[in-house]
């Protein structure tokens, strides 16, 4: 792990900078939340409880599916945009993506092995899986930071916010509804109140009414009463 003093000192200057379209910000909030929740859940798992065991492994497998899909989305939509103007700039992250694919496959196999292992071995296998997931999460956190800094720098140098929004729009349009509901479940509660309002206001205006109602249904159980009141007032919904 490296703490960059230049990045920390730059925070003081960020207040005067004009905010840019950030393709990574919201989806990475969702992934960080999903990863940490899954990791904590696996760490506190009572391996003697069959229901807990199946719930924890199902959550892990769902996380891994989303991580695999996220890699595909970035490889398909974001990396070509970066390489188009700065050849080689996405090479490091692309190589890390290959490592993540391998780690995802290994963790998925380990999760299935946990479900099938003898009862007396569950505790040891669950703890080993927890440790490996912790390493995966740790590397992903550093990986996402690299994308949010180095990759955004290239994108901001070569694309307008309108062009970046178009890239993100094409990416989002490629996501199946079932996957989008999983993303929204972790993304919307992890956003600031303002970010959440902007996203749902845009959905209210542009998405089919059923999609908007589904998004509200996904997020409401995971917001505090205060957070929900802010959102409802911003969207002019009945309190």
Observed structural traits:
80% helix; single chain; mainly alpha; 239 residues; 10 helices; 0% strand; Four Helix Bundle (Hemerythrin (Met), subunit A)
Concise description?
The chain is mainly alpha-helical. It has helices spanning 5-14, 25-43, 50-85, 91-116, 122-158, 161-173, 177-190, 193-206, 209-219, 225-235.
What is the topological layout?
Layout: H1 5-14, H2 25-43, H3 50-85, H4 91-116, H5 122-158, H6 161-173, H7 177-190, H8 193-206, H9 209-219, H10 225-235
Helix pairs in contact: 2-3, 2-5, 2-7, 3-4, 3-6, 4-5, 7-9, 8-10
Number of strand elements? 0
Cα(first) to Cα(last) distance is: 45 Å
Q: Going by CATH, what is the homologous superfamily of the largest domain?
A: nmb1532 protein domain like
Number of helical runs? 10
CATH topology group of the largest domain: Four Helix Bundle (Hemerythrin (Met), subunit A)
Which architecture of the largest domain does the CATH hierarchy give at level 2? Up-down Bundle
Tell me the radius of gyration: 20 Å
Fraction in helix: over 70%
Mean pLDDT: 93
Oligomer: single chain
- How would you spell out the order of helices and strands? HHHHHHHHHH
Main pleated-sheet profile: none
Q: Tell me, what's the shape?
A: globular
Low-confidence stretches: none
Number of domains: 2
Strand content range = under 5%
Overall SS class: mainly alpha
CATH class of the largest domain: Mainly Alpha
């Amino acid at each position: 792990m490296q703490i960059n003093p230049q990045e920390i000192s730059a925070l003081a200057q960020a207040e005067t900078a004009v905010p840019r379209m950030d393709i990574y910000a919201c989806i990475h909030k969702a992934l960080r939340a999903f990863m940490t929740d899954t990791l904590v859940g696996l760490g506190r798992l009572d391996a003697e409880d069959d229901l807990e065991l199946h719930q924890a492994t199902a959550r892990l497998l769902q996380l891994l599916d989303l991580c695999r899909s996220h890699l595909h989305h970035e490889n398909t939509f974001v990396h070509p945009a970066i390489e188009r103007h700065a050849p080689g700039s996405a090479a490091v992250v692309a190589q890390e993506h290959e490592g993540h694919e391998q780690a995802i496959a290994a963790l998925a196999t380990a999760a299935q092995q946990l479900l099938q292992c003898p009862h007396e071995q569950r505790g040891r296998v669950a703890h080993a899986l927890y440790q490996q997931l912790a390493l995966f999460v740790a590397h992903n956190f550093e990986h996402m930071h690299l994308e949010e800094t180095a990759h955004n720098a290239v994108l901001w140098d070569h694309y307008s916010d309108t062009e970046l929004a178009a890239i993100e729009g094409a990416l989002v349009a490629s996501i199946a509804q079932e996957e989008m509901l999983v993303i929204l479940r972790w993304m919307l509660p992890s956003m600031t109140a303002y970010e959440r309002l902007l996203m749902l206001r845009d959905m209210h205006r542009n998405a089919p009414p059923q999609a908007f109602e589904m998004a509200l249904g996904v997020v409401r159980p995971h917001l505090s009463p205060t957070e929900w009141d802010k959102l409802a007032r911003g969207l002019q919904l009945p309190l």
